[in-house]
Amino acid sequence: MRKLLIHLALGIPLLTLVACEAPSVGYNDGYMPEQPIPYDHALHAGTYKIPCLYCHAHVDKGRHASVPSLNICMNCHKSVATDKPLIKQLADAYNKGESIPWVRVHMLPDFAHFNHAPHIMKLSQINAKKRGAAVTDYQDATNITNEDRQAACYTCHGRIDQMTKVYQVEDLSMGWCVQCHRKPEHNAPVNCSTCHY
Amino acid sequence: MEKINKKRYWKSLEEFVDPEKFNEQAEKEFMRSPLQEDAADPVARRDFLKLMGASLALASTACVRRPTQRIVPYSERPHDVIPGKANFYASSAFDNGEFFSTIVRTREGRPISMQGNSAFPLNRSALSARMHAHVVSLYDPDRLKKPRIRVEKDKDFHQRNWNDVTYEKMDESLTKVIDGAKLGMLLASNPSPSRAGVVSDFAKTFSAQVYYDDSINHSEVRRGQELSYGDEVFPQYRFDKAKYIISLGADFLGTYANPTANAVSFAKTRQPGPDMSRLVVFEALMSLTGANADYRIRVKNSDLVKVAMGLAHEIVVKEGHSNYANSDLVKSKLKEFANVAAELNIEKELFSQIAKDIWEQRGKSLVVAGGINAKTEDALALQISCNFLNTILENDGKTVDYQNSLQAFQGSDADVARLIADIESGKIDTLLVSGVNPVYQHPENKKLLQALKKVTLIYSTMYMDETAEMADYILAESHPLEEWGDAEYLPGMYNIQQPTIRPIGDTRSIGFNLMTWAYFLEKGPARLNELESWYDYVRWTWKNRLNALSGDFERSWVALLQAGFVDTKESQRERDFTARRFRMDALSQVKKSNTKSSNYELSLYQKSAIGDGAMANMPWLQEMPDPVTKNTWENYLTISYATAKKEKLKDGDIVSLEVDGKKLKVPVFVQIGQEDSTLGLAVGYGHSWGKVAKGLGVNAWNLAKMTRDEMVTAALPASFTKTGEKTQIANTQGHHHMEGRSIVVEATLKDYLKNPASGIHKHKIFSIWPKHEYKGHKWGMTIDQNACIGCSACVVACQSENNIPVVGKKYVLEGREMQWMRIDRYYSGSALHDDIPKDPEVYFQPMLCQHCDNAPCESVCPVLATTHSPEGINEMTYNRCVGTRYCSNNCPYKVRRFNWFAYTKGDRDIDTPKEAYNPSVTVRSRGVMEKCTFCVHRIEEVKAEHKVQGTSYEDGDVVTACEAACPTDAIVFGDVNDPNSRVSKMQAKKNAYKVLEEWHAQPAVKYLTKIRNKDSISTGHGGDH
To answer: N or C, which end of chain A is more exposed by having fewer CB within 10 Å?
Structure first.
């Protein structure tokens, strides 16, 4: 029994060494997975200038940015580019009531709770202020423009509007989170239970 | 020389008898080291861990790419669902006669927790412990997912062989069975008008007989009301209107009738002050209600009638009060009860004083009797004498509200007897059973078991339980969270039960089944054939009622769904009604019984977590320490300390208990304060089904007795013999012990009125610590020990909210239970030297992380996993914790819990199903310390919401799970930096104190002293030094 356990204990790292081709230490910045449909953000958000919040509709309402449900795609693709094979694939899934299993790019561990809504609010307010707009309230949409909100997204996700294939720009480490929270103009909490609970 | 000890407080017998040894034990916080070599496995865990640690270090540098995660969005997003945001639905729930208006919280379409509907007057935001576990039962893997048909009918029922079928197939077979059958229906009573409607439609159509049997029958109450006043009702007891309450064996705060609503209403009169009510309890077992009594008097259950009539004698004959003072009939009836106090060894002056006081408070007093623990052969006489007392005291119509009566408890043993007779005479050959589990609940009734074998048995159930084992057709029943429903628990109070999830399996409600069969057989009124679903039937039921309200059904319907309830007779609720005329001939039922010559009498009782046992498969409830005994995971025979001494029995000794020739082997547990000749055994255990419930405890119903077609569950003549075997009862009262320091502070009302700070010992403290500065919020809590009744609903609510695992009996025995909240139960009392006080007083102290300003845990953590937040919260960062457990060692309140094993992996039967986890709270793994967080995830959610909405925090925005669950508002949470918050006001009260203040940990939780409404001056000491 003892021998078996020792073999087991020592065998695991050897196996993992063999299994991984390119060992690297650190975070997932640069992670650029293949998606089931190679959705092009540069085309949609860049060329056509569709606001981020059109598809990620709940990013300023709740915890998750939420990958759009298929009915949002179909708002346009009912009539746009319907002949393209990938759109057909999308429409097909939608008509069958199925979904697309997108690969997650930005991933935080389960013990770190990140809430999109207050970040979008705060950062777009800051962006608006930088422009010189008088902003007091996020709900007051007259002063905060789409560009302000979009720039808020870029803060962490980089220039998504220029990415053909989305990848992780920042390392999303705790140190990276905290350096921003510590900026005096952000006036953000840095205690543990801000994110860990 | 006899020496009187000064008043002491203690938690367990060991502590009282040998405090030194107990403290030595208690100092070993982690009771048994898991690092010791296990005899069975020669490789010590420690060695293995060392090797694993080294290899993990190697492995983790090798490859960091996380496994790919998928995000699968909705194809068509449901209108109201925002991923990551909870939705709340008003609904309602009914459990063993108790009714709740509820708010169900769902995440991504999945119900994850429940709380009460704070607008609803009966239970407000509180729920019972069982109701908090209701959500888990939805995901219980043991639930039937499909209906079943017995393969072959086998006379002796050895053939346990069923085919899983679809409901289509079931309908096909059953319609053939039902058509032309002599049909009977055995149902649990239910306050649903739609259910009643469809049952009566169906019964009329197929000329079926309907019988009612509840899992706990209180038929003697209805019968007693009928004999006393002519109307068969289950009155609503208005504790909130009563200034003087006498309970005759009724555990109305714990298990009797609708305890949560009772607790809500009882708490309203318990604010210390000149108007504080007094509770006097006469009982044999130590119940939750008895533990909360101002005066608790031990009497045998068989003597309760004497107590009631004795009090009547004191008032009517001795004092010459009331309308009956001149009635010779009454006087002659009461004559034989003249010397009750002496006969029952009750202090004579006290007994007379109670009678005097209660007469003084006539019209504002209340006498309650009942419950299975008081259901002796004289149960009916007890009800009648209790009614008589209420009439004498002019309480009828005032504190005994017979108009707003409870539409529940229609079930009776007489109905069961009628069913048996009808089967035997051939009047019934096919029986449909729903809502009750008669085979489990009537094992003593051999005639019923024989009768059930004679019929084709159709059983609607969620589990393969005892009755299902005998059934030919098993209808997989939907969970109440999956089905529409409604209720009219009080007349004119309309409640709706909204489903919050589609049925997970191929299940149906009984109502829909009845509709479907009528539809296929093309019989019955048009509605059975035309309406398509159970939802339509519920709406049809409400159409006329709601139209009568507003004339616009759709609008009223939506309003009803949103609010959860509408009270059409609100003005009737608070009214006093005229007293009913008491029928003197009812008193002929009341006879002075002569106590039988048996040494011991057994009384069955319910535990507040397990109740009737229908939810015994819920691990949360099994592991919830019983409020009084603090035992988990099983039932046991409670005996008094004197009996234990006399019979030389200790906790865990297994005895063979005998009642009427029927034997059961049970361990004993010594319960202080229990009447000496009474034995207690809880029902709800000993199931033959369920991965969790099976094999836990024994089925106490076996010992019940049928007398004149009534089930007798109390004062059963019993005897027991020692078997010499021993077991360990998983008791938590000695765990997480605070080493004998004075922690509970009490005072009598008399003391309090003189000096509200009475009993609090003030220390002069100087600090070497710099003071924390809190610029924004500073979270704090107050716990009113005077309001707390110890019901432990908060314990389970916290478990549900914070994903707290269940550890199982084995680890409870090792002191590793994980509940963040515990209710410390203390006994106190002075007694003769070396003896246990026979009449201890009981205190409940909810204990949770005190979020100290100078937290002793924070300073010893080597990895800064536990830190102080700028808002006064003692944070626990799981991902930093390396599991040294220093913090727990250094915590004076013993509120930290360590994950010794991976309790959340889901590989044990007792693990919480993953679906029931709260996604807002991290699920902890092995090797991590955890504790109460002040529901910081709720705080963060509220803060984020305010930021987004541009609004600011107001008192009451953050409600912790325990605060919401508390029926008596004992727990108040809020911002102490806001001088107008409820918590600030409570903390400023003179009777607020900090536990172990002299340690100068500066806890953020303050406790209010326990006030007992006694005439005496307490011995508790105050002052300062």
So the answer is: N
B601-726, CATH topology level:
Barwin-like endoglucanases (2.40.40)
> Contact at 8 Å (CB) between B992 and B745?
no
Q: What is the ipTM of this complex?
A: 0.84
Q: What are the strands, taking DSSP E only, across B611-756?
A: 637-639, 653-659, 662-670, 678-682, 705-707, 710-712, 716-726, 746-748
Inter-chain contacts counted by CB atoms under 8 A, chains A and B: 177
Burial label for A175, CB within 10 Å (0-12, 13-18, 19+), is exposed
Residue whose pair of structure tokens reads 């107001």 in the numeric block: B954
Of B55, B877, B950, the CB nearest to A139: B950
Q: Which residue of B has its CA nearest to A135?
A: B950
Is B679:B655 a contact under the CB 8 Å cutoff?
no
Which of A101, A110, A117 is the closest to B948 by Cβ?
A117
Q: Is the dihedral of CA B75, B79, B80, B82 positive or negative?
A: positive
CATH number attached to the domain at B148-217+409-571: 3.40.50.740
Residue of B858, B821, B673 whose CA lies nearest to B284: B673
- Kindly determine whether residue B72 and residue A102, on different chains, have CB atoms separated by under 8 Å: yes
Dist CA A133 CA B885 (whole Å):
52
pLDDT-derived band at B104 (thresholds 50, 70, 90) equals: very high
CATH of domain B746-767+783-1012: 3.30.70.20
Q: For residue A145, how far is the Cα from the chain centroid? A: 21
pLDDT in tens, B183-240: 999 999 999 999 999 999 999 999 999 999 988 888 899 999 999 999 899 999 999 9
Domain boundaries B220-401, corresponding CATH code = 3.40.228.10
Count of Cβ atoms closer than 10 Å to residue B925 Cβ: 14
CB interface of A with B, residues 54-83, below 8 Å: 58, 60-64, 66-72
Tell me the C-alpha to C-alpha distance, in Å, between residue B1020 and each of B371, B970, B995.
35, 22, 15
According to the per-residue pLDDT averaged within each range, which of B39-43, B831-835, B838-842 is highest? B838-842
Distance between terminal CA atoms of chain B?
34
In Å, what is the CA distance from B34 to each residue of B93, B727, B735, B773? 43, 21, 17, 41
Nearest Cα neighbor of B19 from B730, B737, B644 is B737
- pLDDT tens-digit profile of B994-1018? 988 888 888 999 999 888 888 776 5
Spell out which residues of chain B touch residue A121, defining contact as CB-CB under 8 Å. Answer: 947-948
Token pair 């008003």 is at which residue? B90
Whole-model pTM over 0.80: yes
> Using CA atoms, how far apart are residues B51 and B57, in angstroms rounded to an integer?
10
The DSSP 8-state label assigned to residue A24 in this structure reads -
Cα Rg for chain A, rounded, in angstroms? 21
Number of other CB atoms surrounding residue B59 within 10 Å = 17
Q: What is the pLDDT of residues B272-306, one digit of tens each?
A: 888 899 999 999 999 999 999 999 999 999 889 99
Contact list in A for residue B857 (CB cut-off 8 A) is none
Poorest-pLDDT segment among B516-520, B766-770, B926-930, B1015-1019 = B1015-1019
- Residue-range domain boundaries for chain B: 148-217+409-571, 220-401, 601-726, 746-767+783-1012
